[in-house]
TrEMBL record:
Residues 212-281 form the Cytosolic carboxypeptidase N-terminal domain. The keyword Zinc applies. It is found in: Cytoplasm, Cytoskeleton. One of its GO terms (biological process) is proteolysis. This is AGBL carboxypeptidase 2.
């Protein structure tokens, strides 16, 4: 394994869990701090016995006849809390201890609800999203032996980004929702109409162009540019309905050649620091290996380098991740 990894990470990379919890507690800690000064609603018995999570409307106009005066005061206090600019929850839920817990409202009609009376509904997508018909499924599998980190040699290639001017676009999604937009509705299968073929058309069995796809759950490849026979520049689609984040990658390739060494370079990552600088490898999943040998996701890749891009969008710098890989099978 990589012996200096833990020490190096402590010195250079902040703990992502600690950062997440800090922001999480900044938001929810206010509720927790106020709980001690509120009446103990667990002593009241006016909760419907057959519905331990009874929704209370923020308007205070429903089911008021079932709520005692003390709990009504608690609701009013929470209602005031929820009116603050940084506390926007519109739901109050009874939990099993009859305590009122503010919850953030999830996007409506985007997630299926498991029901014992009928099978699980098909997943719903924002109508802006085009989704391929194929169902992507991966087996669960753990490597029988530890997967070793990549040992940087110091002479890894740093490709210069050339883009479409010197390369050929072989895959490109349509434009995506801009910053600040939000989905208006959702449906099974996402966008209406025929799913377009975005990858290039092969000119024959000797055409070794890779066929890319990312229109499935968590897929985020926006564009692929072929800059050499076995070399591709990749641009990621930013997270939808956010301030634009690109922190991971997930896409599919087909029409591979077993004996070739491919190079992929992602050109628009946003994190200044990455575990790829200290030996982490990309993950590879072979559908053929999964079907015939019961092998799932595994770490692969060589000549791994994470570095600052030579271009930016005028607002923030971009970072590149480049690596080489040999696929296990033809086609």
């Amino acid at each position: 394994m990589f012996p200096a990894l833990e020490t190096h990470l402590k010195q250079t990379i902040p703990d992502p869990y600690e950062d997440f919890m800090y922001r999480h507690l900044q938001y929810y800690g206010y509720f927790k701090a106020q709980r001690g000064s509120l009446p103990n609603s667990a002593t009241h018995q006016h909760v419907r016995k057959n519905n331990p999570q009874c929704l209370l409307n923020g308007s205070l106009g429903e089911k008021d006849d079932l709520i005692p005066d003390t709990l009504q005061k608690e609701k009013l206090l929470y209602s005031h809390m929820l009116s603050l600019p940084h506390l926007r929850s519109r739901q109050l839920l009874y939990d099993e201890l009859d305590e009122v817990n503010p919850r953030l409202r999830e996007p409506q009609e985007l997630f299926s609800i498991l029901s014992t009376k009928r099978p699980l509904q098909a997943p719903r997508w924002p109508i802006e999203c085009e989704v391929i018909k194929e169902n992507i499924h991966h087996i669960e599998w753990a490597p029988p032996q530890p997967e070793y980190f990549y040992q940087p040699k110091g002479n890894e290639k740093v490709p210069e980004i050339v883009g479409e001017k010197k390369g050929t676009v072989v895959y490109q999604l349509d434009s995506v929702p801009i910053e600040g937009s939000y989905f208006t509705s959702s449906r099974v299968g996402g966008k209406r109409g025929i799913v377009k073929e975005l990858a290039v058309t092969l000119q024959g069995p000797e055409d070794n162009t890779l066929l890319f796809e990312s229109r499935f759950e968590s897929g985020n490849l926006q564009k692929a540019v072929r800059v050499d026979t076995y070399e591709y520049e990749l641009t990621l689609r930013t997270d939808l309905y956010t301030n634009k984040h690109t922190q991971w990658f997930y896409f599919r390739v087909q029409n591979t050649r077993k004996d070739a060494t491919y190079r992929f370079t992602i050109v628009n990552l946003l994190k200044p620091k990455s575990l790829y600088t200290v030996g982490m490898k990309p993950l590879l999943y072979s559908q053929l290996d999964a079907n015939t040998r019961n092998i799932g996701w595994r770490r692969e890749g060589n000549e791994i380098k994470y570095y600052k891009n030579n271009t930016d969008d005028g607002q923030q710098p971009f970072y590149c991740l480049t690596w080489t890989i040999q696929f296990p099978y033809d086609q």
